[in-house]
Amino acid sequence: MAKIVRVEGLMVDLKPKVKRVDAIQSFVSQETPIIRITDSDGAVGTGYSYTIGTGGPAIMSLIERTLGPALIGREAGMIEQIWRDLLFLTHATSVGAITSLALAAIDTALWDLKARKAALPVHILAGGAQEKIRLYTTEGGWLHLDTSAIVEDTIRARESGFGGAKMKVGRPIHEDVARLAAVREAVGGGFEIFTDANQAFSVDEAIRRARHYEAADIGWLEEPLTADDIDGHVRLSASTTIPVAVGESLYSALHFRDYLQRRACSVVQVDVARIGGITPWLKVAHLAETFNVVVCPHFLMELHVALCSAVPNARWVEYIPQLDSLTTKGMTIDNGYAIPSQEAGLGIAWDFAAIDRQTVEGSRFTIAN
Fold this sequence. Notes:
The chain is 38% helix and 20% strand. The protein is α/β, with parallel strands linked by helices. It has two domains: 125 residues, Enolase-like, N-terminal domain (Enolase-like, domain 1, 2-Layer Sandwich); 227 residues, TIM Barrel (Alpha-Beta Barrel). The strands form four sheets. Strands 6, 7, 8, 9, 10, 11, 12, 13, 15 and 16 form a ten-stranded mixed sheet that branches. α5 links the parallel β6 and β7. It starts with a strand and ends with a strand. This is L-alanine-DL-glutamate epimerase-like enolase superfamily enzyme.
């Protein structure tokens, strides 16, 4: 094994290619911390995470001041041990978003390093369960768009081979219902329509809306309630035939355990950045498998394609391009399926010259022994 000798960090602030509006917010930027870890053999692993426009400097500071220095001298291959030690080191600030996002940037870099040294792609190293994963798109279903635009985009998605599309909900209920009906009529019954409320509803409103949404035969209702309202999700799940999807706003495997044990969801959308990295992501995915529940992760398609391919119960990857301006080639797509890279590591073709050009001033740091 080889010890960690250098930790480098920087942050890029990406602007969305399309206007993104949901029931609670508008996406104006995406802060992307990027971490590179070098071991004593000279091998390098690159990892990253993200925020929706705020909190990035706090993540960078936590890594630079606390987590990064604690990595120096550690055996790079001891990923589970390192993850647990770093979590304990930050026990006063966890469980929570800032700590999880910082841990994820480090953990994904360590997995990339390990896979590169093993000359294996991460999806094989982590399990090797599937060769391709079905894609659905979110890029054309934002809440501010009018019905005709959503219908047109969904038809294009179907014709491009996507198996489904997501629509944001949260307009007055009669508008949501009309929009869903129009899309269903346009695409027919062989195409999945997913909905996402972004935690906007109260329990009574979610129950009522779900009853009306059922007519469109939607694939799931995502984040209908605040993520910490497990009782509300239990009541909703028991009241509707629509699968309830949660996970992008959960930051601990134990939170997923509680949801699954109480039958409060039927789709797990664990986000590799928000759960704290690949190490806990795999635990959640395998936990969901024991409950016969599918995994359809939130965002980060360039990374989730490998993780979904590693486990047997992953069903969908969400198509939202994130890293185009930071990579030399994108994720491979074939007839509506995401194909994991066969290259060693995470399979992300970083363009480090482009990253250097887009680095936020003052965010760069290096820690070395």
